[in-house]
Amino acid sequence: MEQVVQAIALVLAALVATVVVLAREPKRQIFAFMIYGLVLTLLFAALQAPDVALSELAVGSVAIPFAVLATLVRIEHGPR
Amino acid sequence: MSARARTAMTAASGAVLLVLTILGCAGLPPFGHYPGPYGILLNLVAPHERQIPNIVTAVNFDYRGVDTLGEEYIFFAAVAGIALVLRNDRKRTTEQPLPPNRELHGERRTDAIRAFSALAIAVTVAFGVYLAIHAAQTPGGGFQGGAITSGIGALLFAGLGYRTLSRLAPQAPAEAVEAVAAGAFAAIGLATLVATGAFLRNALPLGGEGQLFSTGTIAVINLCVAVEVCAGFILLFLEFAHETRIERPEPENR
Fold first, then answer.
1. Are A76 and B168 in contact (CB under 8 A)?
2. Distance in Å, alpha carbon of A44 to nearest chain B alpha carbon
3. Do B144 and A51 touch (CB under 8 A)?
4. Which residues of chain A are within 8 Å of residue B143 when distances are taken between CB atoms?
5. What angle do CA B195, B198, B202 make, to 5 degrees?
């Protein structure tokens, strides 16, 4: 049972990571990256690393996307 | 560099990387087989030695506390670096959002968005603070709790707007709190050095295993880390939120 959950999480991580790489448009890519953060959280939890999972939850699916989204706004709408 | 040369270089370095990765993986222990001995040893001695059920926290804030101090200052330096790079025009930042380059639908937030954000903030704070203060009992701790609590910065900005964020989480106090909390970790280290002769040696009463107020200096350091990380991430959100605002035009002559 444990191995099944881990295998599913690993396959899911590989799939979503591929989607992140294949998304060429930055705004789409960052939303894919957010989902990737959630999938990694599940993977770490499945591998019995809840501490790492919780860190990944905050950093990977909130902090990094926020910074990138704000940067995209600046690049697209900013002066010059 | 021509496209062909670039492809050739990518293929060559990719092939080398692939071989090295396979060689590296071949030397790994089988999946799920931890070779030890430190983890096994700590699992045996730490609950008794430090009265703590969560060994990861004991490792982070006690057995290899110096390492965590270093990590803490990496985080501190990263936030300071972001502030340094993004702040040069701070005096000229206004509350006006940057002009959209196409029609934005419903730029004013609906009541539903505001209400949901407020609810999400409440849940985030409750979960983050719970994680932070139960570092000794359950998975998670200062870093995780602080980082998740700081998510309110992102929620405030996205759900309630830039103005609410900059009012409720003003820059200067957040900076002061972050700096004091980061300094406190080092100060605890120095205090234990004076008191026990070893940097970050646990010098406080340990209390009973599983209790909220237990584990001596681990609990105090954990609290410092929680506050530092939370304030640091909120500063990061603030700095990036400022970037989405219009700047006043530069004065003609300085």
1. no
2. 12
3. yes
4. 55
5. 70
- Strand pairing partners for A80? none
Strand partners, B245: B97
Contacts 24+ apart (CB under 8 A), B26-30: none
* A25-77 confidence digits (pLDDT tens): 998 999 999 999 999 999 999 998 999 999 999 899 889 999 999 888 888 87
CA gyration radius, chain A: 15
CB B56 within 8 A of CB B135: no
Q: How far apart are alpha carbons B64 and B44 in whole angstroms?
A: 17
Best of A31, A68, A77, A80 to disrupt the B interface (most B CBs within 10 Å) is A77
The complex's ipTM works out to: 0.88
Cβ neighbours around B151 below 10 Å, total: 26
- Indicate the pTM of the whole model: 0.86
What's CA B208's distance to the chain center, in Å? 29
Mind telling me how many Å the CA of A69 is from chain B's nearest CA? 9
Contact B154 A57 (CB under 8 A): no
Cα–Cα distance measured from residue B173 to residue B242, given in angstroms and rounded to the nearest whole number: 16
Cα angle value B51/B57/B59 (rounded, 5°) = 90
Size of interface A-B (CB pairs under 8 A): 61
Number of CB atoms found within 10 A of residue B67's CB? 11
Burial of A56 from C-beta contacts in 10 A (0-12 / 13-18 / 19+) = buried
Contact B35/A at CB under 8 A? no
Best A44, A54, A55, A57 residue to mutate vs chain B (most B CBs within 10 Å):
A54
Helix B217-242 crosses helix B142-149 at what angle (to 10 degrees)? 30
